[in-house]
Amino acid sequence: MAQDINQWTKKELQIYILLLCANADADETDEELAIIKSKVDSVTFNKIYEEFSNDTEEEGIDKVDRNIHRYDFTNQELSELRHEMNEIFNVDSKFKQMERNLNRIMDNILY
């Protein structure tokens, strides 16, 4: 069973969001995963990746929506998160329709 979403740390939430971005076009690349892994320790990445792998996109978006408001993200933190999200979206230098859709959804959730 997936972990209780109420026990995510702020960093785990950020990693989950980046995994959603990497998988938005249904094609997680090694380069995208490497970028995400560079932002967190391997234990945390593996824990969140396992949960992410067991969730549908809709479940993932719902989890992010329910959890984002638990933390008081500063404008600077949101800006950094948006920069990281865009970095993942643009790894392949293509901003595909599915990525644009997730980007819009995440804008609505984050702001």
Detailed description of the structure:
The protein is mostly helical. Helix content is 68%, strand content 0%. Residues 1-5 have low confidence and may be disordered. The chain has 6 helices and no strands. It is globular.
Task: Name some characteristics of this structure.
single chain; 111 residues; disordered N terminus
At a glance:
This protein has 111 residues and is mainly alpha-helical. The chain contains 6 helices and no strands. 68% of the residues lie in helices and 0% in strands.
Percent in strands: under 5%
Helix content: 55-70%
Strand tally is 0
Total count of helical runs of at least 4 residues: 6
How large is the radius of gyration? 13 Å
User: What is the residue-averaged pLDDT?
Assistant: 91
**Which regions are unreliable across 5 or more consecutive residues at pLDDT < 50?**
1-5
- What is the chain-wise order of helices and strands? HHHHHH
Shape: globular
Protein structure class: mainly alpha
Sheet with the most strands?
Answer: none
Quote the distance from N terminus to C terminus.
30 Å
